[in-house]
Structure formats: C-alpha cells, structure tokens
Amino acid sequence: MLAQIETLPVNTPDVDWAGLLPLAILGVGAVVLVMFRSVVKRLPADIETQVVTLVGPITVLGMWVAGGYAGENVPLASVRDDVGEPAFYIGLLVVMGVAALLVRTMQIGLDAAVTAGVGLSAISAVWALWDDRFTSTGPFNAIGDQFGVDGFSLVITGVIASAVVLVAFLLDDYLRREELDGPEMYVLMLLSAAGGVVMAGANDLIVLFLGLETLSIAVYVMAAMHVRRSESQEAGLKYFVLGAFSSAFLLYGIAMVYGATGSTNLIDIRIFLDSVVLVDDGLLMAGFALLLVGLGFKVAAAPFHSWTPDVYQGAPTPVVAFMASAVKAAGFAALVRVFVVTFGGYSSDWQPAVYALALLTLVVGSVLAVVQRDAKRMLAYSSISHAGFILVGVQASSPEGTASVVFYAVAYTFLVIGSFGVLTVVSGRGDRATSLDDLDGLAARRPALALAFTIFLLAQAGVPLTTGFVAKFEVIGAAVEARSYWLAIAAMVTAVVSAFLYLRIVLSMYMGTAAENPADDGSRIHPAAALAIGVALVITLGFGIVPGPIDELARDAVPHLVAAG
Amino acid sequence: MELTTTWYLVLSVLMFSIGAVGLLVRRNPLVMFMCVELMLNAVNISFVAFGADLNDVGGQISVFFVLVVAAVEVVVGLALVVAITRRRSDANADDISVLRG
Known about the structure:
The complex is a heterodimer. Chain A is mostly helical. Helix content of chain A is 75%, strand content 1%. Chain A has one domain (139-556). Chain A has helices spanning 2-7, 21-39, 45-70, 75-78, 86-106, 110-137, 151-177, 184-201, 205-223, 230-261, 266-275, 282-298, 307-314, 317-342, 347-370, 375-396, 399-426, 442-445, 447-461, 467-481, 485-511, 527-545, 548-556; strands at residues 140-143, 147-149. The mean pLDDT of chain A is 89. Chain B is built from 3 helices and no strands. Chain B has helices spanning 5-25, 29-54, 58-87.
C-alpha cells in the first residue's frame, strides 16, 4: 500500500488567494490579535486610547487594500487609477480622519476595535469579490475543488463578518461590565467566524466537517467564558456534550455517503448521483438521515433543539447574539449546499424528512416560547421557530427556496443581534435581570431601548415594514410554489401564535409598572453598544421598507458546484 | 470464514451505538467524553472499511482529520470540566442543572 502511494504523483491544487481573502483576513486577524496581546498584556490607559484611535485609519487602509486585492472594478479599488493624484491622497486622509474620530467617540477597547476592523476588512473583500470577480466571471473554486466561491457563500460570509463587527461592539461594554476583559473572547469569535466561512464555501464533506468543528469548538468555549457564573459554565458543558454528539452523527453520515458514492467531494458526489442509478440506496438514505440529524442539531431544529434554551439562557448575552446569527447562518448554508445543491436529484427522498422537521420546529418553537418566564429562554424558543421558517425554505428545494433562505438569514442576523443587544444592556451586571418581569415598564426607564426592542420584536413577529415580514413572506411564497400548502399554512398559524407572545412583551414594557431593577442602574448606554443596536435597527426598518436590494442579492446568491478544470 | 467489508461496518455500527447509548446513559462527564471518542472512532473504522472496499485512499486520509478534531474536542472538553470542578468538588452531569425551563 505504501509503495503504491509513493508512486502516485503529488497533485498540488491551484490556489486562488483572492478568493480565500475573507477567510484569510478573519483567521490571520485572530492569530495576530492573540499574538500581539500575549506580548503586550496591558497598555496604560492614555496610550491605549491613542492606539485605539489609530485602529480607525488602519481599518480604512485595510478595507482599501483588501478590496483592491480581491477585486478590480469596485468603488473602493477603482481609486487605484487615481493613486498618485493629490486629490486621492486628500480624500483618503479625510476618510481616515473621520474613522479616527468615529472610533474615539465610541470609547471602544483595543481588542474590540481590532476585531471590528478585521470584520470590516473581510466585508470589504467579500464586496470586492462579489462586485468584480463573481459578477464578471461567475462562481469559481479557490483551492482545487475543495472550496467554492459563489454568490451564496459570499453572502453568507458577509453575514458572518457583519455579525462579528456588531457583536464585537456589544462585547466591548459587556466584558468591561463583567470584569472579564481580555482578547480571548474576540480571538475565539474570529476563529469561529473563519470556521463558518469554511462551512459556507465547503465543496467537500470533510472540509465542511472541519469548518463546522472550528466554528463549534470556539463557540463552546465562548459560551463557558463567564468564569464567575456557574450557569455559563453549565451552558458551555451542555453545548459541548450535545455538540460533540451531533458532530459524531454528522461524521457518520459523511462516512455513509462516502461509502455509497465513493467520494466525499460534493462535485464528484453530484456527478456520480446524476450518472448512476443506485440499485441499493440504503447506505445513501442512512447517510441523508445522519447528516440531517447532525446539521439539525447545529441549527436547533426540533426534535434536536433541547440544548438551545439552556445554552441561550446560560451563555453570556453577546455570545448568544453570535450563536443565533453567525452559527445559525453557517449551519443553514451547509444544509442548503449539501441537501439542495448536492442531493437535489434525490429531493423526493429527503424532502419529507425536512418537511416533518420544519413542521415540528415551527410548532415547538412558537408554542413553548409562550410559557417561558425568562427573556433569553423565550428568545431561544423564538430562534427555534425562526429555524423552522428557514427549514420551510430549505424544504422547497428550489431556487426560490434558496433565495428565501438567504434573505431570511440576512434579515434574522440583524434582528437577533439587535434583540440580544438590547437584552445585553438591560440585563445589568452579572446577566441577572433577564426575567420577563424585569422588562416591565422598560419604556419609562429607558424609552429609546424600549422602542428599539419593540421594533425588533415586531419584526420577529413578522409585522409589515420590517425585514421580518418580507423574510417570512418569501419563505412562505417558496413553500406555496413548491406545493407544500399545509406547511405554508402551519407556518402562518405559528407566526400568529408567536406574535401574541411578542405583543405581550411589548405591552408589559409600555403598560407595566416600572419595576425596580437593581441590576440595571439606568446609566448611559455605551456608545459602541448603541451603535450596534442602531445599525441593526436601521437595517431592520430600512430594508423592511425597501426590501429590493437584499431581495436582488438573495436572488443572485445562487450556490454552485463548479467542477475543477 | 473470510472477513468482508460488512463485518467491519457491523463492528462500526455496534461501536457507534455503544457510544451513543453510553453518552445518554452515563452521568460522569469524563465517561461521556470517552463515549464521544468511541463514536468518532467507530466512524473511523467505517471510513477505512469503505476506503479499502472502494480502493480509494480518501477514506484513510479522512481518518487523520477526524483524529485531529477528536483530540481538539477532548482538550476543550477537559478544560471545561476542570473549570467546573474548580467551583464544585465533584463533576456529575446530574448536579450541573441550574438551567431548567
């Protein structure tokens, strides 16, 4: 066997570095940050302020270089022709100055500033790849045939990078309040995001598995990061045990599919399944079932959702915002890539299973959310019900279904970060005030936050003029087009059930007697946290009123399997 | 009697089931980690068996990736257990139940 391997020629894959740029920025950013912070542990306060102010202009430069390297026709990079002209340098200096001022007014820590800068550079690279490479040459492979860059993976990458930026802003104030400050959380978040990017673009089941583990293992640690709260450590351990359990199922599914098709590469699997009629497809069906169980755990689909409420309640609130946005988006990206794209020809075999999962998830998520007394637990169940809606889009197994999944993932990311962002501020020191009673009379204590939370809750309920409405509309539209009428009706009914719950919270915020909340001292909201919540709010309302741009983006975000050539 | 691929696959299914049931039944986190290892190694057996059956090295290469991931998982898992036992004298999954709904 060994001798046989020695005679095989070594194939070095073609690497397209520009296509890997978003991934490289996130991964290298994490490594640089942890190395820098292990050398420079603590800076004097006044020096740190100066250094942080410098991060703003450096981010602008980073975005310019990343965009310029990844693409050629983007606005950011098109200024390359003007390099050398005085006007260009003046413009660049002005933008850098504005960035420095912005960072200064945000009163943000060094680690959070660097993390946000890394995330913004990754977004710039994604934008450049989309605007230039993708629209002119179409989807392509970045490393051999293992990692694909297509509209779908680019949009999901952008979603994950946006989640990194917003959650970094939320984490900054939270970590200082809880006296947990240090670079660890940010480094883990960047590593986790890199894993999510690998998942979104994986063209090989083993690469997908590696991405999933990079994503998950970092998040297990993040959930357990609050060293003084036993709930946090319990959440971390529970998430870890059930996550490892589900990874084993996913891996067994990969082994089964490998045994049935002879490859772990999605492109080869697709070609094999299109050209060969399997006489005995038991192995393949077992593979489908195990893959669905493994990915179902990750996206918190019922009946594999049991970890979600406990983990969401125990984990630090900004970490929950990351889990509900980036981790879920990456999970659904994997689900679409594996099932809709690769096993699309066998959709009659897996569609009933996803149909049942979606139905159960919708019912469990909306009904159990009503009986919760804790806001984080309630939002956990509501995130389960949102997972059900996205599964309705996956179940359609059509281009419309995939577009609706992308739209929902984009909309839900900002919605959920905003919701948990408000909870981060309101819950006060030690994450104590997360009971729904603590939200009574919030409008009297913190009118602006109460208004923001109201809009996020209404958007989650699917009220028109918010992204939540458009997302639900598209998903149900895709289900109707796929002739899954009963599932569409069930989705609408459960949406009404959850709407009751959200409206009850809104009512208690405005009508309830202002409870004395010892944990929340009513102090001014940290500017960075306010910015994160504000951005989420603007996107939720703005694209709710004018959904066209995201809609077009979602329709162009088609996953492709490009054969290496 | 000749050992065919099926035998290895049956062994893999048995090991995987023992691991899965063990994880659900046992209450000690350390034993639960061992059960996860058992499940991952059961998958490794089937990867190698399929690889030999298909005459493809891909299955055996996959095993290396799985081994690395398994090692990383144990590192993180043990760190979590250590963090919890520093607060409490014994780590038992039944005692770790502050969070209920």
